[in-house]
Amino acid sequence: MKIKGKLVMSYVMIAVLVLVVGGGAIFGMATIQDNARLLYHNRVEPLGAMTEIIQTGENLRVQVLEGIAEENTARGEDAVVAIDTMNSLLENYGQFQLREQEQGIYDQLLLEWDTYSSQARTNARMIAAGQFDSAATSDSAMANDFVAFRETLYELRDVSLAIAEGNFNDGEAAFSTVRLITIAIAVFAVVLAIALGLLMGRHVGNPLKKVTDRLTLIAQGDLTHEDMHTKRKDEVGQLVDVTNMMQEDLQAVIRSVSGAAERLTGASAGLTQSSRDVREGSEQIASTMQELSSGSETQANTVATLSEKMEEFLNKIEEANKRTEDVSNDSTKVIEQTANGYKMMESALNQMITIDGIVNDAVQKVAGLEKRSGEVSKLVTVIQDIAEQTNLLALNAAIEAARAGEHGAGFAVVADEVRKLAEDVSNSVREITAIIQGIQTDTKEVVGALESGYGEVNTGTVQMAQTGQNFNEINEAIKKMVEKIEYVTSTLSGISADSVEINTSIEEIASVAEESAAGIEETAASSEEAASSMEEISTSADTLSELAENLNQEVSHFKTLA
Questions:
Q1: Range(s) of the domain holding residue 197
Q2: Is residue 241 in some structural domain?
Q3: Can you tell me where the transmembrane regions are (predicted)?
Q4: Is residue 237 part of a domain?
Q5: Closest CA to 79 of 67, 89, 93
Q6: Is the sign of the CA dihedral 513, 516, 520, 522 positive or negative?
Q7: Same-domain check for residues 119 and 27
Q8: Cα-Cα-Cα-Cα dihedral sign, residues 434, 436, 437, 439
Q9: In angstroms, rounded to a whole number, what is the distance separating the alpha carbons of residues 172 and 436?
Q10: Which among 121, 300, 481, 530 could disulfide-bond with 513, CB atoms 3.0 to 4.6 Å apart, if both were Cys?
């Protein structure tokens, strides 16, 4: 049988053992699951229902007692609801799968419940109707019935708990049995697998180790051992035969490669020398072309830089020409404005002369006014003296009239009126005197101001005349400057035209220099490519020589039969 069949058989046996172990485990788990399901449906659910029945029965009893004690009619209605709930719970409990012992106790429980529930319903209706005394009497009579019902209910609960505990113990016993069987099968499977492993290792591993040792010697370059012998016809025997064939083929290949490596070493040496000679010539050509390319590139860059500088110079000349034209135009405008300013200065000078005459005339007139004010002041003084004398005369007349008695009464009245008139005149004269003095003061101030203004006008007239002369000189200087600017503009226009021609010539030179540089660069690139190719050939020749030497060294590691 071949190794494949043996391995398959051993794996099949192990798989069968695994299936047996798995089947036993599945069977055990199914048994445990069934026990758990039965325990839940037949024990846990009935116990839960039993607990609810007990709670409802206790609640019914509490409702009746509290209704009687508290005389609460609502408790009677709650008791009726509890009775209906208890009927439903007992009916549902009877649908579970009960044991024979449980069924007997359940039937007895129903009989006792019928007796107790009928009396409890009657008492509940009495409580709901407010007949508390009757309900109390009836409740005392049915107390024993409730105790009997409750004891039977607890007995049924205890029996259910005992049965549930028995089911649980049966489940644990089944689990222990399944676990023991599973462990036994697993131990047997492990022992059988180890035995199969040892058997397959001895039957397959030992021959494979011999082949591995021979392959290790071959990998180390030792081909001097005799062929291995075997009578096996399986894969191990085929591997031994193939190893022997590989050793013989490697011996033949090593001999052939050794001869080829020696011939390759000689050829690579000649190729290396030829490639070096060609490479040196290519490098010399490339170096020369590189120098030419560098010079042409420098020339092209210089011409390009010169072209850029000429372009900038041309732009600056054009800009200067435009600025000069603008300055010429602005100078013409300045000349016109200067002429207008000169005319305005002449007009202002004439006006200043006119103002000078007007101010001089005003000064003279104000001086005359001041003189007339002095004369009026003198007249006022005379009037003041007359008024004082008149007042004295009136006073004397009044004195004389007083002496004359009744005959002088009329004269006394006239004298009094004259005295009052003299006083009024005196007062008016004083007011006029004050006014004239104010006029004289203001007149003196006006005279001073006019004289000061007249002096300023004279000074301004002189300055205006000097300014007019300066404007005339500025006008002449600007005219000369405009003539020079026009000459500069004409010269810059000529320079701009010449610069355009120079820039065109420089661009042509730059174009020729760039074409020359491009041609030289192409030639240099071709030389560099040729040098690079020869470098690669030389490198390849060196590499080939190294490979030949390495091949000889590698081949020398193998030991072959003579």
A1: 3-210
A2: no
A3: 12-32, 180-200
A4: no
A5: 67
A6: positive
A7: yes
A8: positive
A9: 151
A10: 300
Beta-carbon contacts of residue 408 (< 8 Å; ≥ 6 apart): 400, 401, 402
pLDDT band at residue 269 using 50, 70 and 90 as cut-offs? low
Quick one: 165 and 304 in the same domain? no
* Residue 305, token pair as written in the block: 């830089």
Separation of alpha carbons 36 and 29, rounded Å: 10
Nearest to 424 by CA among 390, 397, 395: 390
Q: Which two tokens stand for residue 48?
A: 């839960």
The CA distance from 517 to 292, in Å, is: 8
pLDDT for residue 336:
76
Of 159, 188, 210, the domain-final residue = 210
Q: Are residues 162 and 269 in the same domain?
A: no
Is the pLDDT confidence value at 116 over 70? yes
Helix (H, G, I), strand (E, B) or coil at 286: helix
Find the CATH number of the domain harbouring 521. 1.10.287.950
Tell me how far apart the alpha carbons of residues 311 and 504 are, in angstroms, rounded to a whole number: 10
Same domain, 298 and 402: yes
Tokens of 313: 């110079």
Please answer whether residues 388 and 423 qualify as being in contact, where contact means their C-beta atoms are separated by less than 8 angstroms: no
3-state SS of 431-449 is: HHHHHHHHHHHHHHHHHHH
* pTM summary value: 0.33
Domain endpoint, select from 155, 177, 210: 210
Question: Per the structure block, which two tokens stand in for 493?
Answer: 């226009």
The residue with tokens 């009037």 is: 383
Q: What are the CB-based long-range contacts (under 8 Å, 24+) for 305-311?
A: 306/506, 306/510, 307/503, 307/506, 307/507, 307/510, 310/499, 310/502, 310/503, 310/506, 311/503
User: 391-400: long-range contacts (C-beta < 8 A, 24 or more apart)?
Assistant: 391/419, 391/422, 391/423, 391/426, 393/418, 394/418, 394/419, 394/422, 395/419
Give a yes or no: residue 169 inside a domain. Answer: yes
Q: Could you give the number of structural domains in the chain? A: 2
pLDDT at 508 over 70: yes
User: Does residue 21 belong to any structural domain of this protein?
Assistant: yes
Residues contacting 16, CB < 8 A, separation 6+: none
Structure tokens at 17: 């053992």
Cβ count near 289 (within 10 Å): 19
Single-letter residue type at 142: M
- The helix-helix angle for 235-404 and 409-557 (nearest 10°) equals 170
